[in-house]
Structures are given as structure tokens and as C-alpha cells.
Amino acid sequence: MISELQINHPVSSSSVIGACKTGPASNILAGLSFGYLGNIPPIIVWASLSFLSYYWLGGFGASLMAVGVALMIPNSLAANTYFATI
């Protein structure tokens, strides 16, 4: 949900539109960087949650968070990168 708000913001997509006018290389780079921006908020949330789980539960909390992150990162990367291009 956090990344959807960032990707669907109209000001952010105007940078990709401006890059389309300068050529294909800058268009590709602007599109990729715009797609990867949606991954920053979830990574910040996951990092803070991993710190809190280690603080509260010690090594068990850190291992639970590692498994949760390992299961969710591919889904988040694929969704944010693919849906930003639609």
C-alpha cells in the first residue's frame, strides 16, 4: 500500500514522461528508477520491524523476520517493478 501511493503519484510519473522526450536510453533508465522507487518504503518498514523483533524476541525474532522477508521480497520486487510499467 505504501509503494502504491508512491508509484501512483502524478508528480513522480512526470519525470518518466519528460525522459521520453530526450531519447530511448534516458527513457529506459527513468522507467527502471521509477519502478525501483516503490521498493524503498517496504524495505524501510522491514528493516525497522526486524530491529524490533530482535529487540523483543532476540535470535528467535530475528530468524522469524528473516524467513518472512525472504518470502516477501521476490513478490514485492516483481509487483513493484512490473506494475510501474503498466
How does this structure look, described?
Helix 2 (10-20) packs antiparallel against helix 3 (24-37) and helix 4 (40-57) packs antiparallel against helix 5 (59-83). The chain has helices spanning 2-7, 10-20, 24-37, 40-57, 59-83. It has one domain. The protein is mainly α.
Keyphrases for this structure?
mainly alpha, 0% strand, 86% helix, 86 residues, elongated
- Order of helix and strand elements from N to C terminus: HHHHH
What's the tally of helices? 5
The proportion of residues forming helix, as a percent range, comes to over 70%
Average residue-wise pLDDT: 76
Strand tally: 0
Q: Which strand-content bin applies to the residues? A: under 5%
Cα distance spanning the termini: 17 Å
- State Rg: 16 Å
Shape: elongated
**Structural class determined from secondary elements:** mainly alpha
Number of domains: 1
**Major β-sheet profile:** none
